[in-house]
Design a protein that fits this description.
The complex is a heterodimer of chains A (about 425) and B (about 160). By secondary structure, chain A is mainly β. Helices cover about 15% and strands about 40% of the residues of chain A. Chain A has helices at about 5-20, 45-65, 90-95, 140-155; strands at about 25-30, 70, 100-105, 115-120, 125-135, 165-170, 180-185, 195, 200-205, 215-220, 225-230, 235-240, 245-250, 255-265, 265-275, 280, 290-295, 300-305, 315-320, 325, 335-340, 345-350, 355-360, 370, 380-385, 390-395, 400-405, 415, 420-425. In chain B, about 50% of the residues lie in helices and about 10% in strands. Classes of the chains: A mainly beta (about 425), B alpha+beta (about 160).
């Protein structure tokens, strides 16, 4: 028994220095497998089986972050139900862990399950947070994602982006006649499903904050126009009820408004509408192309791009269209801005003459610009709920698009696996 | 070459028909050209205008001299066909970002429409549509490919 921890320790010694070099802020979190107070039945769907799968998913979630390095789950680290709230801190401290996550899965008489999680400071031996859910047997993944979020928030102070959804455009078919469909998947790439059938060209899905609905651009019936699909009922309707060209929709943080572009003649301006229909209000009136608007998290300001100066640059204005100010001044152009959920940053695509198109961030006042990717064909950044990571679209040398994730703290972008080629990603906030 | 083959084909079918149908039918005039209706008009429009397509500079909707020459020829032909429904379809290239590309395509289509109206084509005859950077004419991200995708196409709808 006493010799058992050795392999783990070795593993730790081999992987920690590399991780520490890449991410000096990364902290180790121990994830011994969740336990169950139920009798030991290990069949598929049993609490013990779900506890093991949930533990693996939590570790996988946290491994995908730049801030945490999980150790475990390891079968030999099982603990008893009472130990959920009394983990052996000294043991995890010895292994270098700064945090410990414990939890349990318990079956209920009604067929559902209770999933509980606890996060501790392993050094101080204090509880940092707990959470619990009653879920249907096939919904344990969401509960596990919530546990991951609890640990992530305890370690970083930022919301976890695990129980979220990502909308994107799934692409197939020949390059000059691409079939494009609006698709939605969980934040970890599972549960992929299609929203549109593929008979109509569609672009730029944008989820409502809790991912109940998605606004997107459809070429159905002639002019490209914004449509809204309810992801629960499947009902769809146009945002603006006439043949005008409208595009670039984004929900307000409370989901009640949609800001978007509408074209009249050679001029494109920004408008806002109630997301359930109703009056449309014009926000910009420059003779140039004003588009890609996105709300600040407080809903009081909007960032957008405009070529009124001659090239595409970023501007910030009040949500009623007043006080429009340019915030980007570098060479080349800036496009497709999105405000981070914590309000601190604005992400964008930037083309540098001779340097391709890259993803970058700047403060809302235009200071502190940083480029996060090397391009050459990156665009469409969308924030994770944590405000510490972005998903974006990258075109390969063959012109095929895929989704990538990049952390603000640096490192190489990592490809997100999708069933088909993918573009125009949009990452939701944390689900309820 | 294609025309020559077509004539041969017609001759062959006429010869085989003679074996089965009465002489009076076989001596009828040869069938009309293969292109009929809107297809024939499209072919004639492209031939007499030089091109149904005009090209633009990067991130620009300014009509170049060659583009204006093509549009002048298009306008001359379109003025003789006020019965046709015409749509100007604008496109951007892959180096443009998604939203901006839609607006640029619209702007290009609108520039072409305005110029054709200036040259006497009835405005009511001309609608516009932007494809953004969708449906490229040429694949790839080479400068030559991008240049061929920055375009507006005058489409005879019906």
């Amino acid at each position: 028994m006493t010799a058992r921890p050795l392999p783990l320790l070795l593993l730790l010694l081999t992987c920690l220095p590399a991780a520490a070099a890449a991410q000096e802020t990364a902290a180790v979190i121990a994830i011994p497998p969740l336990t169950t107070p139920d009798e030991k039945k290990t069949g598929a769907g049993s609490p013990a089986a779900v506890a093991w799968q949930a533990s693996q998913l939590i570790a996988s979630d946290l491994r995908s972050t730049a801030e945490l390095v999980p150790i475990g789950p390891n079968q030999k680290d099982y603990y008893s139900y009472p130990e959920v709230t009394a983990p052996t801190f000294s043991r995890w401290r010895t292994l270098g862990a700064k945090f410990v996550l414990t939890g349990f899965v318990r079956s209920r008489p009604d067929g559902r399950m209770t999933v509980g999680c606890y996060v501790y400071d392993a050094v101080k031996g204090t509880e940092l947070g707990r959470t619990g859910f009653v879920v249907a047997a096939d919904e344990w993944r969401r509960a596990a994602h919530k546990c991951s979020g609890l640990a992530y928030t305890a370690a970083t102070g930022a919301p976890g982006m695990f129980d979220t959804r990502i909308a994107y455009v799934a692409e197939s078919g020949p390059a000059n006649a691409r079939v494009k469909r609006i698709a939605v998947m969980d934040g970890d790439g599972t549960n992929q499903s299609f929203v549109t059938a593929g008979d109509t060209l569609v672009l730029t899905p944008r989820l409502s904050p809790k991912a109940e609905s998605v606004a997107y651009v459809s070429f159905g019936g002639g002019q490209p126009h914004v449509r809204i699909a309810d992801l629960g009922s499947g009902e769809q309707r146009p945002l603006v009820p006439n043949g005008t060209m409208s595009f670039a929709p984004r929900f307000s943080p409370d989901g009640r408004r949609i800001v978007f572009s509408m074209q009249a003649g050679a001029n494109t301006d920004i408008y806002v509408a109630q997301s359930d229909g109703g009056a449309v209000q014009r926000l910009t009136a420059s003779p140039g192309i004003d588009t890609s608007p996105a709300f600040a998290p407080d809903g009081n300001r909007i960032v957008f791009e405009s070529d009124r100066s001659g090239t595409q640059q970023l501007y910030v204005m009040n949500a009623d269209g007043t006080d429009q100010r340019r915030i980007s001044f570098g060479g080349g152009w800036y496009a497709a801005p999105e405000w981070s959920p914590d309000g601190e940053w604005i992400a964008f695509a930037r083309r540098i003459p001779g340097g391709g198109s890259r993803i970058g961030i700047m403060k809302p006042d235009g200071s502190g610009e940083k480029l996060l990717t090397a391009g050459p064909s990156d665009e469409g950044p969308s924030w994770a709920a944590s405000s510490r990571e972005l998903v974006f679209q990258r075109a390969g040398p063959d012109g095929r698009n895929a989704l990538y994730r990049v952390s603000l703290s640096g490192g190489e972008p990592r490809k997100t696996v999708t069933a088909q080629d993918a573009s125009d990603p949009d990452w939701s906030g944390v689900l309820d | 070459m294609r025309r020559f083959l077509l004539v041969l084909g017609l001759a062959a079918s006429a010869a085989s028909a003679q074996l089965r149908v009465p002489p009076i039918l076989a001596r009828r005039p040869p069938p009309a050209p293969v292109l009929v209706g809107i297809d024939a008009l499209r072919a004639e429009f492209t031939a007499q205008s030089g091109s149904a397509i005009v090209y633009f500079g990067g991130d620009s909707a300014v009509l170049t001299a060659p583009a204006k020459a093509t549009l002048a020829a298009q306008a001359q032909w379109l003025r003789r066909h006020p019965e046709l429904v015409v749509q100007i379809e604008g496109y951007a290239d892959a180096s443009d970002t998604r939203d901006h590309a839609l607006a640029v395509g619209a702007r290009r289509a609108e520039e072409v429409r305005n110029y054709l109206v200036l040259l006497g084509v009835p405005a009511a005859q001309l609608s516009t549509l932007s494809w953004g950077k969708e449906r490229p004419a040429v694949m790839g991200t080479a400068p030559e490919a991008l240049a061929l995708n920055r375009r507006a196409v005058t489409v005879l709808v019906r």
